[in-house]
Amino acid sequence: MFKRLIALAVPLAFGAALTACSAAPSHPNGAGPAPRENGASPDANIAAIVACYRAHGDPSFPDPVYDPGDGRWHFGISPGTAPVSTQQACQHLFPASNPSPPVPQAQFRKLVQLAQCIRRRGVADWPDPNPQGEFPLPPALMQKSPAQEHALKDCQQYTPSGGINVVAAP
Asked: Quick one: which of 114, 48, 59, 111 has its CA closest to 83?
């Protein structure tokens, strides 16, 4: 009888251990499953940036959004709209010298139209996008103004499904 209990307990314990090991790992900030490198979720760097923003003063920073048009993950909103202290605390997570590949030409043309529309709506110094599809904003535009918000809303037909990416102008 004792041998049968052992014979039954060992596979059950082994099965429980396998189940525990195969469970989705939790995200470091406890906000859900950890990102996976299989394309089904944002890469680890984007997930780390979002977690950092949430932990350093912007708890409602949205999840990243996948854009099937360019096959990349984008921030739900621009990281440049977060409080400056949050941006500074998380700046080390942004890649320094690895620029993104250029966006497809059709998406680039749409981003140029977005920039033109924003300028027509009163934000005269809004720049054209760079080849990576990012808008290099001067310091005065890094904090979103009511005029910017209004222009972005009026021009949303040109905004990609993944939102826009802004970076500090060099």
From this structure: 59
Position 16 in a domain: no
Report pLDDT digits (tens) over 11-67: 333 333 333 333 333 344 444 333 433 445 777 778 888 888 889 888 888 888 877
Residue 77 lies in a domain: yes
Q: 78 lies in which domain range?
A: 44-168
Q: Is residue 110 part of a domain?
A: yes
- Please give the tally of structural domains in the chain: 1
